[in-house]
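Q: Start with the shorter request: fold the first protein.
A: Done. Sequence, then structure:
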Amino acid sequence: MPQIIIYTAKFCPYCTMAKKLFERKGVGYTEINVDAEPGLREQMVEKTKRRTVPQIYIGERHIGGFDDLHALDVRQELDPLLQV
């Protein structure tokens, strides 16, 4: 199973929904809360070229935010990514 990384922030409903989707799928993830330390948000922006959270990686693939993750799930394209 590939490593899953989710960049999150406090009080972010989309972050919560992304984490719950992975939990329903029974897969673990690494959460990086960009509010936890100075510089983490800038690090996320440099890596993803986006300022909003969540930002999700499955392995080396940048998925994007929750809407992108949900769209993959609806199209039944998420499970194969999680099985790699």
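Q: Next, the second protein, separately.
A: Sequence, then structure:
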Amino acid sequence: MLSYRHAFHAGNFADLLKHLIQIEIINYLKKKDKPFDYIDTHAGAGIYQLTGSMADKNKEYLNGIGHFLGERAAESGDLDALIEQVNICQQNNATGDTVLYPGSPAIASQLIRKHDKAWLHELHPADFSLLEQQFHRNRNIYVKKVDGFQGLLGLLPCLSRRAFVLIDPPYEIKDDYEKVVDIVCKAHRKMSNTIFAIWYPVVERERIEVIGSRFKNSGIANICRFELGIKADTQEKGMTSAGMIVINPPWTLFGKMQKQLPELAKIVSQDGNLHFKCEQWVAE
């Protein structure tokens, strides 16, 4: 149950998509002075060594953030949020030979303001320890060793009445696909204006179709889906695409993804074809 370690996959194409959307949403919320709460249900270790033994095993980052590090950063063109993601990454690599990649907690910590709050949940003992060490001095960042799904339900409705929830489970347990929908529906009933961004892997397309159907029939309005892939769906083992289901997205997000996803698909494709989706599942 607690065997998943994101360090093996840090900085890959799926992280590019997830963190692009995370940055866009946080920057949108910051346009108002009013504080907001950032809630990360499956935070991981917070920051990852791309030169470490885990990330170096499969080198997934090479077909992800690796395209944009160093001199190649200039190739990002009009991908504004990607440029910001690269800048955050470079800020974590000021000296030495170790290449660090910031996960969602580290990105959030560098973007939120002093009057915003971040709630980071992680159950894996090793990753929780790393997460706690990084943020124990941050008075507005709270690290919790509790189940992130239950932690989310306990935090809503939050005092700020503005919240962004990032849900990124490992999907080790097949029930997680169904559980994600159930928890989001419960959380939405507690505070309906919350922005939810739910990450999913495409390993078996049928599972994504099921959760998509459930969300579309949930009664929740304003749902979009953004997906990025490296090759066509297959029956073989392994993730071919990854996506984000976003509820109550910023009004600017859809247009930006329409421009950015084709560009990213060109870069990460392994078969020469473009694999991306930019869809509105449910209208406002």
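Q: Describe the second briefly.
A: The chain has one domain: 22-47+105-282. Strands lie at 37-40, 47-49, 100-102, 117-121, 141-144, 163-167, 195-202, 223-229, 241-247, 276-282.
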